[in-house]
Amino acid sequence: MMSNRQRQNSLHVVHVDGVLVEEVQYIRTTILNHFASHYRAPDVVRPGVEGLNFRKLTYAQAGILVRLFSLEEVKQAVWDCDNFKSPGPDGINVGFIKDFRHELKDDFMRFLMEFHRNGKLTKGVNSTFIDLIPKVDSPQRLADF
């Protein structure tokens, strides 16, 4: 059943601007370029913040912004999330994290401490996957997704 579903969901050929594109690597590149152009930010002049007078933080307030996260703060942030929203590429959603909080808390805290130490998130932590969802029964063009 899974093999049949995978076969049905496979994309073997796609029409782009009147050209038939075949082979996985060419289809992948064509789709990437198509959607990259859709999500590209337009070149617009945005207002700046020069000349605006903002209130400044005190040293005590600034110190709060860079202190380590407490276990309670992390738990509160997780509990504020909907259980079934945004599963990751592995299918794990926030409900799973809540259910296994005791087993995962040390790994979460170690990850956050690493962030504080290096000031960088681990590569891939903010990766995005876009699924092509067909609008019609037998999609042939990128506009059919």
Helices and strands, with pairings:
Elements: H1 2-9, E1 13-16, E2 19-22, H2 24-38, H3 59-65, H4 71-79, H5 94-99, H6 101-118
Antiparallel strand pairs: 1-2
Structural summary, described in words:
- The protein has 145 residues and is mainly α.
- The protein folds into 2 domains: 1-40, no CATH class; 66-131, no CATH class.
- It is 43% helix and 6% strand.
- The chain contains 6 helices and 2 strands.
- β1 and β2 form a beta hairpin.
- The mean pLDDT is 83.
Kindly summarize this structure in a few lines.
This protein has 145 residues and is mainly alpha-helical. The protein has helices at 2-9, 24-38, 59-65, 71-79, 94-99, 101-118; strands spanning 13-16, 19-22.
Shape estimate: flat
Radius of gyration: 23 Å
Oligomer: single chain
Strand content: 5-15%
Q: What share of residues is helical?
A: 40-55%
The helix/strand order is HEEHHHHH
Low-pLDDT regions: none
Instruction: Give the CA-CA distance, first to last residue.
Output: 24 Å
Structural class comes to: mainly alpha
**Mean of residue pLDDT?**
83
Strand sequence of the main sheet, in spatial order?
1-2
User: DSSP helix count?
Assistant: 6
Largest sheet: 2 strands, antiparallel
Q: Based on DSSP secondary structure assignment, what is the total number of beta strands?
A: 2
